[in-house]
Amino acid sequence: MDVTYNCLNCPHLRPAFLLDRVLARLSADIEDGKWVDRGLPKGEVNTEEHLDTVRALLYDNYLPQVNLYEFFLVDTSEILDAFEKKVSTFMNDTGLCPQLRGDTF
Questions:
Q1: Is 43 within 8 Å of 31 (Cβ atoms)?
Q2: Where are the chain's structural domains?
Q3: CB-count exposure of residue 40 (10 Å: 0-12, 13-18, 19+)
Q4: What is the model's pTM?
Q5: Is the alpha carbon torsion for 9, 28, 34, 41 positive or negative?
């Protein structure tokens, strides 16, 4: 049996996949010499100063473009609506709190 993990059948892996693509793009840009003017020699990262530059590039140039934080946000209106429907359904089905039955929150 073959098992494959991808972004369709494992949506929780999407942020990791996106971060991997960002790191691959940064690596390719370093290899191409795009950041020589920032002190990164073409194709080399071998000093602490180089790592500091890579970190700054990652935080300032690459990560802001992909908005990773959006994967961890929820639509509060949608969640509250779903919660209210579940509570109303539960109260109607069980007969609890008959004075609230049919009322909205």
A1: yes
A2: 11-72, 74-105
A3: buried
A4: 0.69
A5: positive
